[in-house]
Structure formats: structure tokens, C-alpha cells
Amino acid sequence: xxxxxxxxxxxxxxxxxxxxxxxxxxxxxxxxxxxxxxxxxxxxxxxxxxxxxxxxxxxxxxxxxxxxxxxxxxxxxxxxxxxxxxxxxxxxxxxxxxxxxxxxxxxxxxxxxxxxxxxxxxxxxxxxxxxxxxxxxxxxxxxxxxxxxxxxxxxxxxxxxxxxxxxxxxxxxxxxxxxxxxxxxxxxxxxxxxxxxxxxxxxxxxxxxxxxxxxxxxxxxxxxxxxxxxxxxxxxxxxxxxxxxxxxxxxxxxxxxxxxxxxxxxxxxxxxxxxxxxxxxxxxxxxxxxxxxxxxxxxxxxxxxxxxxxxxxxxxxxxxxxxxxxxxxxxxxxxxxxxxxxxxxxxxxxxxxxxxxxxxxxxxxxxxxxxxxxxxxxxxxxxxxxxxxxxxxxxxxxxxxx
Length: 402
Ligand code: APR
Ligand code: PHB
Description:
This protein is an alpha+beta fold. The protein contains eleven helices and 20 strands. It has a domain at 5-70 and 97-177 and 268-350: 3-Layer(bba) Sandwich (FAD/NAD(P)-binding domain). It has an eight-stranded mixed β-sheet with strand order 6-5-14-15-16-13-17-20.
């Protein structure tokens, strides 16, 4: 079999890339080792930046997010006795959308299957070959157990944090940066309407808590816990009472309901460079991981492939390699900004057990809540850097700045 772009992984990165390429007349084959049911049910992030919604719209899969996504024009920052609202539209003229990654993935799979272009689930033994040549190949076993070879012009490694693509970059050129945090999140999905209009990010001496949501009837909430936390020691009652305690505010009440899912998420920052080696291009979690505090993981995956789709279309259709040559550097500029922002949010909001740290965190929270400049900086980063391949940042995003 032959294709122009072999895409490994049917997460948001691989699926959005496939859509954007198809629109530009570039052929691709998507290979995924899990089943469709598994991929569609995997519960992950749920906040989309405006530019992510724009890319989904451009990719032809924006209808449902526009219809069902919940637009958020700000967040609440909380610490004991205080809940302060940051108004993103006033601060930077941008918004975010609450819409689950599960729904994004369902929309993308439906769109891909509707085009009739290949998307193969339940493949195994995926291996990459000759990525430094003009004839890279992917070998794999299909779901019927038949060995297959896919000859490509380029390979897109969109295979997440545990996929094989990254390891094809030789150690002589590859560099990785990593930070593991001394805490994790216990996340729940609950069948109860959100108790808040906007997300609440709460600092508390007993640990961070976050109230998020997926729809007008489903809430998503998180608690800071130890990295080795045993989830079996968290009964539903214990989870709700800790959430109520850490999110407590006079005159406000947390509504509780049946817990549909609970899990512990490790927290890690990780960046792999370069994001291109020969004719292998990495995108999304295959190249970088962020802690969930700034809700950047899904958005970075989408912005990577927005840049990559343009670069690959130029390369494959026009035989112009300029954008492909610049891909790694351009993508990494956004990656490092998001890596810094999610590290900063994480550092401001999670208790470490150290009193000095706690005083610095509270001072930072008061500063963000009272200084327009500090609040605007959070708002700009939270709503996301515009996607551009010429390095342009946020210029012009301030509604008061003409
Ligand atoms: N062969 C084929 N597919 C693979 C292989 C393999 N050897 N290894 C991994 N995959 C698949 C995974 O099963 C997964 O479906 O690659 C896909 C990668 O998808 P994601 O992990 O969702 O990564 P990405 O598309 O980069 O999206 C990043 O997902 O992890 C969240 O928080 C993260 O929101 C962010 C987003
Ligand atoms: C989520 O809804 O899953 C979510 C929201 C905001 C975050 C992280 C996760 O910062």
C-alpha cells in the first residue's frame, strides 16, 4: 500500500491532521492500535481555545462544538474567603469553550469515516522504517492479523506519550526536558449540573481543587492528591466532602450527584526536540506533555497539526519544503509558551506543604486578581496564543489596543 502521509495515532492530533490534509487534497492513512469504542470513550481534557475551535471549524468538524460547546468568557480564581472572577473578554477579547475531548474525537472519527479515507483501528506491531529517506515505511499487522506495509512520502507521529515514533529520533540529535510534580489529580465525572457558571480554580491549604464541566448536566471536578494516591481509599462521599471543603465559599453550595468515572492523573511536563527528523514529523503528546492545570494538552495537539498540515501540503503538493523546515521551531515556540504557562498555573495553585511557598502563592493570587496587567497575562495565555507560522504573538488581541 502507498499513501502520501502515514499518520500513526487516532487521537486529536492524528485525526485533525487527516482532516486538514484531505481538505488540501493530500492523501493519508491513519493507523490506531486501540478500538474505536476505546478511543471514543477515553475521558480527557475539555477546554478548547478559540483558535482550536477555529481549526476544528476549518477542518469541517465545528458544527457540534458551536451548537453544544459552552462558551466561557472567564474563570474564577479562589483562595479561602475569596472568589475572584477574571473576565477574559474584557482582558484580551478572547474566550474558551467547554467541550469534551471525547466529543471532539467522535466528531473527527465520524467526519473521517464519512469521507471514506482510510482509518484503521486495532492494528498492532506498528514500526517505522527509513524515516531519514524519501521512502519512509510503516509496517503493522491489521485487525485480521495480516502483515501490511505502508509506503509513504512522510510519516506523522501522532501516537501520544507512549507511542513508538519519538524513539526514531537518534539520541545524537534528540533532547528531552522533563519535570515531574510531587502531586497528582483525582478527577471525577459526575451526573450533576455544574454548581458554577465559570470554572473555579481553588487554592486551599489542604490542596488544589477545580470545578469544571462538560455540559449543562455533567460536571467534571478535580482534587490535588499524592502521586501514589490509592483511589480505592476515596469513596464517593469522601470525594464530595473534600470538594465541598476545598471549594467552600459563604453563600455558595456545591451540588453533588452520582459519580460516573474516577481516576488519578499523574502530572508531568515533558518536551522532546526536534519535532522533525528526516521525513518523520511529531505532533501532540508524542512530542510534549503538559500538566493539566492550564488545559493546554489538547490545544497544543491541535495547533501543532494546524502548522503541520500547511507544511506537509506545501511539501507534498508544491514540493516546497520551507514550511516543513520551519515546523519544529515554529511549533516549539507555542509548546514552550504553554509549557511555561501550565507550569506557572500548577506552581501557583498546588500546595507543597511549605509555609513560605503558601505565602508566595497567596500573594501571586491576590496580584492576579487585582492587577489588570497580571490578569491580562493569565487571560492571554489561558485563551491561547494565536496560531501562526511567522512567530507572531498576541499583537492586536487587546480590544482596547488599536
Ligand atoms: N500504534 C498505533 N497507534 C498508537 C500507538 C501505536 N504503537 N501508540 C499509541 N497510539 C495511539 C493511541 O492509542 C492514541 O489513540 O495514538 C493516539 C494518540 O492520541 P492521544 O494520546 O490522544 O494524543 P494526541 O492526539 O497528541 O492528543 C493530545 O490527548 O492525552 C491527551 O491531554 C492530552 O489532550 C491532549 C491530547
Ligand atoms: C477539564 O474540564 O477537564 C479541565 C478544565 C480545566 C483544566 C483542566 C481540565 O485546567
